[in-house]
Amino acid sequence: MSATPPVIARENIDVVVFDMDGVVTQTAKVHATAWKELFDAYLKERAQRTGEPFREFDLRTDYLPYVDGRQRYDGVRTFLASRGITLPEGGDADAPDADTIHALGDRKNGYFLNAVKRFGVQAYPTTVTLIGKLQRAGIRTAIISASVNTTMVLEAAGVRSLFEAQVDGQVAKDLSLPGKPDPAVFVEAARRLGAAPSRAVVVEDAVAGVQAGRAGGFAFVIGVDRGGNRAALSRFADVVVNDLSEVSVSA
Hints:
CATH architecture of the largest domain: 3-Layer(aba) Sandwich
Strand order of the largest sheet: 4-3-2-5-6-7
Number of helices: 10
Largest sheet: 6 strands, parallel
Order of helices and strands: EEHHHHHEHEHHEHEHEE
Structural class: alpha/beta
Radius of gyration: 18 Å
């Protein structure tokens, strides 16, 4: 990993692909809180039902490695597997209180939507500033997210018009694209703007996301450390910054 402040140069780069939560919008903490509400409630109910000891969902030791950046059902599946819990997959027709992967994922989505309605969504000003610099330099911008609520969140934050391409959870479902750490969503976002990964940059705050950028052969992978996760991000990112104000653009 380089310690040099990153510079995105137009001569080498055609497209920058941004992750949404925690990079563009200040929603990563909202997602983390929603996941904790979901799993703490589920694990307490399960403990009462089975006699197993209750161990709460931890935002650092559980959220970051097992849930952060993953598609919703994959996050449920991965975290439960870390606790030795296996549930049936279920489907879209599951009752809200069903004991299935789909039902738990849908419950989490409800927690998240309620939080967004209560508190709104803000974009990171420094990210918006960087996007403006990129576009003035002739570098196109795309956004990816594992969320099916991407359009709603971007509109609430007033930044949807900043991106020429969007590959979100619904697009991934429609195209059967695997989630992070597979690079498929990033590759699809760059493809929609006519760029090969070798001419594109990935900007991510999740370990699964920077891992995907590295696996996809992208020209440069920038990790954004907003939660003390620098060491893990550094394993796959070319550089890790605290904020995107540290990134420069060369035309």
